[in-house]
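WARN retry 2 of 3 for item q-0093 after timeout on previous attempt; input resubmitted unchanged.
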Amino acid sequence: MINEARFAGRIGFVPYKVGYPVHTFWDLGSDDSTTIWFMQHIGNAYNFVDYYENRHLGLDHYAKILREKPYLYGDHYMPHDAMNTSLQTNQTTKEFAEDLGIRPIIVVAKPKDSQEVIAGINQGRRLFNQCYFDAAACEHGLSALSNYRSEYDRKKRKPGNYPVKDWSSHGADSFRVFATGFVERPRVETVTQTMERLGMRLA
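OK item q-0093 returned
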């Protein structure tokens, strides 16, 4: 898929476009990586303008990263474990993230079984032809998608039903959050968004 996207010109320079919200899609990690895709939905296209990944860092770090980027945000999609409660804060990850300014958050339901995981992967494949990626900003995320694969079933001598859990699975899982969770919601444009779309800035 990645090579086909390159050949079709869907991986290249995909800049942030003023006037369109940036939606984020997460895979949450405490002992491993947290990954975030940044996407603008423009017409029938899903423009992935950015990607970020880091590990062993708290949500305050990721909130700071989001604030430092020049985007006006839409919705933030997180996986089901955003509803887990921390013993330290007595808050869910979702509540803590919202207190840090990451809002609104939409929690995507946990797949019920391996078949739903496979269905989510297939949904990502179906949407992929509508996806455009900034080659530089999304380089590591694209590498994760390229290396994502199923475990090999030695008895059946074919790929199994479960993806391999390695470094690539985090970027792929956050892309699956996009594929299974994203819904473009009607929204009222704020004054700031209107000014940005018109190329103006608040003093």
